[in-house]
Amino acid sequence: MTAAKPLRADARRNRDALLAKARELFASGCFDLRFDDFAKLAGVGTGTLYRHFPTRAALAEAVYREELTAMCARAGELQATLPAAEALAAFLRGFVNHLHTHLGLARTLATLMATRSDALADGGRELDRAMAGLLAAGVEEGTIRDDVGAGAVMMVLQGICTACDEPGSREDADGAVTLLLDGLRRRPS
Amino acid sequence: MTAAKPLRADARRNRDALLAKARELFASGCFDLRFDDFAKLAGVGTGTLYRHFPTRAALAEAVYREELTAMCARAGELQATLPAAEALAAFLRGFVNHLHTHLGLARTLATLMATRSDALADGGRELDRAMAGLLAAGVEEGTIRDDVGAGAVMMVLQGICTACDEPGSREDADGAVTLLLDGLRRRPS
DNA sequence: CAAGATATGGAGACTATCTCCACTTGTCAA
DNA sequence: TTGACAAGTGGAGATAGTCTCCATATCTTG
């Protein structure tokens, strides 16, 4: 599914150079760089950049794909080793924590979530699935309400991701997670 | 504070034409129109457009300022006529409802909230204040928790606003509000 | 190693944004 | 009214990103 094309050697090299440079730049806070300049900085031509990553979002997604996958994997681990409600809490708190030390990821996720209908959104869907899994386990366990879907939770996360690079947003993000977790608890109706 | 400059007659006319046309276009779903074309369509020159509204966001804010103010006023009314917790619930449910029939407003709010540090954000701050008021009343009343600030709630609202024009987001938005309201309830600790 | 497939790079077309200023229009005091 | 000054106008063109195109270079495979 992923290995449809055995990229030529030099092509792979260029692609990697692009990714490496992008990662480096994102890590140092440069997000709004002129797109063409990514190419220049990575030592490849503009055309090459556009061939590998048709849009800025595509580049961002590729850069953070691994990281996102790792986070989703973590959701699985938590789910396997903790009671569902705790796993959910641990995941969400870890998520917010991670976002605040990886603003590039936050931006990227915000973009991905806002682009649901697109091909490059499967990164977003991955997170969606992880979330749905955690919730389902909680419902099963009886500690999480069953009348609110994963979409609603994702919507809140989208807000958090979007607001992330606002200075001083950390506290509010934690507050939002608190609300989320308490809101999700099954209510003794 | 608002009446610093008694705009010349023709200037006001142009400004109004611009606003009217923008309102009309927004209402019909055209948000991403070439900015210069607003001018053309409203029958004024590009320069005039830019003088009155330096950015797209400024135009959007002006278009929805009234509406936003009305919403905030409504928060006040609710607060005056209902127990705080109910006022909060009514406001939030009304808010989401309104957003989903006024997508332009949703977009605009999403933008405003993402632009906290700017001059044109006072529209956003207005909402912020209304929210803070509702919460404070609830805390006073003893039905709303006091350990989570208005910022956290606004963050969730931002997510809702951003996701609004996704088809089928209505249900999720309602879910998010449910989570929010239940999460905000003072817990019998 | 030759031939075909694959990939490159960067000049320049294209597009949206925004500025600038010679000119028009409104205002107001006389 | 009218003259003179302030206020506002419009739209051509400067500026700056984005993206395409294709002659050329580089890989790969038989």
UniProtKB/TrEMBL annotation, chains A, B:
The lineage of its organism: Bacteria, Bacillati, Actinomycetota, Actinomycetes, Micromonosporales. It comes from Actinoplanes cyaneus. SUPFAM superfamilies: Homeodomain-like, Tetracyclin repressor-like, C-terminal domain. Residues 12-71 form the HTH tetR-type domain. This is TetR family transcriptional regulator. Gene3D superfamilies: Tetracycline Repressor, domain 2 (1.10.357.10). Residues 34-53 bind DNA. PROSITE patterns: HTH_TETR_2. Keywords: DNA-binding, Transcription, Transcription regulation. One of its GO terms (molecular function) is transcription cis-regulatory region binding. The keyword Disulfide bond does not apply. InterPro entries: Homeodomain-like_sf (IPR009057), HTH-type_TetR-like_transc_reg (IPR050109), HTH_TetR (IPR001647), Tet_transcr_reg_TetR-rel_C_sf (IPR036271), TetR_SbtR-like_C (IPR049445).
